[in-house]
Design a protein that fits this description.
mainly alpha, elongated, 175 residues, single chain, Growth Hormone, Chain: A
């Protein structure tokens, strides 16, 4: 998973200056949603190589793009004296959002597991049903995030404006 995040982060870093953050964020969240949806289809007797690994790889590719897009969007256009504050706010938001997401999706998993157990299903089937419900809910939230990202302000023009125009001093340094 780490390699997938690293690979997609490297690709997204090269794409953002050309496309802006919006397409990277939308693509990343949709890839993440596809990976999580894949994971939400795992059966009780699923295996790692065929049931889990493909979903994790797709999800990782999406997450790397999202990380780059969010960090770039959050810091673009921020004055230098406020850059530390912007970085701290995005880090705090990610931490709080992760904790809130974990709490919500854990509650979904626990509630579904309890419901299936009360219906008389064996524990492995109940746990699987609970995890699948939480993963499906997570995929839906990621699709909603992709829709929201389509409305986000693009940073392509701001990134282009931040690049120094080739002037005599820039050309002299290059020579």
């Amino acid at each position: 998973m780490t390699a997938g995040v690293g690979l997609s982060s490297a690709i997204a870093t090269k794409l953002v200056p050309r496309t802006g953050t919006r397409p990277v964020l939308v693509a990343g969240t949709l890839l993440g949603a596809a990976g999580v949806y894949w994971l939400s289809r795992i059966g009780v007797h699923g295996s790692y190589p065929t049931s889990i690994l493909p979903g994790l790889v797709v999800m990782a590719l999406g997450l790397g793009a999202v990380f780059v897009g969010v960090q770039t969007a959050a810091n673009t256009g921020v004055p230098a004296d406020k850059a530390g504050l912007a970085a701290a706010l995005i880090t705090a938001s990610a931490t709080v959002g992760g904790a809130l997401g974990l709490a919500i999706f854990s509650a979904i998993a626990a509630g579904r597991t309890r419901h299936v157990l009360m219906a008389g299903a064996p524990l492995p089937a109940a746990l699987t049903a609970g995890f699948l419900a939480a993963l499906l809910a997570c995929a839906i939230v990621l699709v909603a995030a992709a829709v929201i990202a389509t409305r986000a302000a693009g940073t392509r023009q701001q990134l282009a404006a931040a690049q120094p125009a080739p002037g005599p001093e820039t050309m002299a340094k290059a020579a």
